[in-house]
Design brief:
17 strands; four-stranded mixed beta sheet; Aspartate Aminotransferase, domain 1; binds pyridoxal-5'-phosphate; 2 domains; seven-stranded mixed beta sheet; globular; alpha/beta; Aspartate Aminotransferase, domain 2; about 400 residues
Length: about 400
């Protein structure tokens, strides 16, 4: 038998984490890593945050799961808190980002169905987008590496260039339901939408009766210094997919919508066995307790500015390797002049710094939102040292 017990779909590296402490991860061979990957923007509170641990422990001893056949005081409480602090009027809880996206796609289609326009089923999505790995989510991206061999995909998606407003508007026709877009593309290479682009999509939705569906699975939940990234653009969506940071490491996602946009989501139209169970809700509450502490988001903004300024200072010292930096808040992408995957491995294996590779030669820096200046200084030392000792592979 050659196949591994874990289905071999990931090129796993040989760091095998067994413990986490704040901004650090410890592997089974005792190595200690500065974690600027944060489980791909998931561990918003870092590792082993005492408030999150306590909330989960307490809920585990009380009630873990009952299914959605029963009333949910825990779910109502967290949904209310999200409604109180966002554009949304209603929330569906999921267990992952891709499920939140699925719910968002279904909600958008049902809206037009409920309005007597079932033919308005197409979502316009964008180049280099990433929305997850379910059939709907891979149908919503035009990235060949995620789609190949999985055809036939779900119909009802059209693809425009990211940040090309005119190109997106040109695709609108009688079958258009709306746009599905990340305000800051993550996997695609930390590409922030321009103000004109996102505001222009909002305006087009208002003019044509379309829905703006935002995928804030990676950019949301405090990562940019705002609760959600769209706040930086002065717009609100009609529907939004959320996950990653929302549970601080506990599997949780959510689809948020306005009352109008959710008008088609009536009894029986959607569901999830686990979705929003008491244990997940306790984790979600604990994360919000911390994110809504006075000054927390300002701290993220400040650390984001510090990280950005430090990277900008570092780049000219290694301009044979580094090309530039882009991103917002604590979602920064360091662009290399070579493919980034090998440099990410070099930083990890030789300098104890964890980062994440992304498209377009980007090294993603996604630290826990609780980082302090000293962690940024440590990361810059490791990056600088890493750049100094790095030998670009000859086939790059
Ligand atoms: C990670 C991600 C997803 C998918 O989330 P999963 O929890 O892996 O299903 C969807 N959209 C964006 C923007 C993401 O970054």
């Amino acid at each position: 038998m050659a196949i591994t017990p874990l289905m071999p779909v990931y090129p796993r590296c040989d760091v095998r984490p067994v413990r986490g402490e704040g901004v650090y991860l410890i592997s089974d061979d005792g190595r200690r890593f500065l974690d600027f990957a944060a489980g791909i923007a998931v561990n918003a509170l870092g590792h082993s945050h005492p408030h999150l641990i306590e909330a989960i422990q307490e809920q585990t001893e009380t009630l873990m799961h009952v299914s959605n056949l029963y009333g949910s005081p825990q779910g109502e409480k967290l949904a209310q808190r999200l409604v109180d602090n966002t554009f949304a009027d209603t929330v569906f809880f999921t267990n992952s980002g891709t499920e939140a996206v699925e719910c968002a796609i279904k909600t958008a289609r049902r809206y037009h169905f409920a309005n007597g326009h079932p033919e308005r089923h197409d979502l316009i999505t964008f180049s280099s987008a990433f929305h997850g790995r379910t059939m709907g989510a891979i149908s919503a991206t035009n990235q060949a590496k995620m789609r190949e061999g999985f055809e036939p995909l779900a119909p009802g998606f059209k693809y425009a260039e990211f940040n090309d407003l005119d190109g997106a508007l040109a695709l609108i026709d009688d079958n258009t339901a709306g746009f599905l877009v990340e305000p800051i593309q993550g996997e695609g290479g930390i590409r922030p939408a321009t103000d004109e682009f996102l505001q222009g999509l909002r305006k087009a939705c208002d003019e044509h009766g379309l829905l703006l569906v935002l995928d804030e699975v990676q950019a949301g939940y405090g990562r940019t210094g705002k609760f959600f990234a769209h706040e930086l653009y002065g717009i609100t969506p009609d529907i939004m997919a959320v996950a990653k940071g929302i549970g601080g490491g506990f599997p949780l996602g959510a689809c948020l919508a306005t009352e109008e946009a959710a008008k088609g989501m009536v009894f029986g139209t959607h569901g999830s066995t686990y979705g929003g169970n008491p244990l997940a809700m306790a984790a979600g509450q604990a994360v919000l307790d911390v994110i809504f502490e006075p000054g927390f988001l300002d701290h993220v903004t400040k650390m984001g500015e510090r990280l950005r300024a430090s990277l900008e200072q570092l780049i000219p010292n290694h301009d044979e390797l580094f090309e530039g930096v882009r991103g917002k808040g604590l979602m920064q992408g360091l662009k290399l002049k070579h493919p980034s995957r090998d440099f990410v491995a070099h930083l990890r294996d030789h300098h104890g710094l964890l980062t994440v590779a992304a498209g377009d030669n980007i090294v993603r820096l996604l630290p826990p939102l609780i980082i302090e200046e000293k962690h940024i200084a440590e990361a810059m030392e490791k990056l600088s040292e890493g750049a100094r000792t790095y030998v670009v592979p000859s086939d790059d």
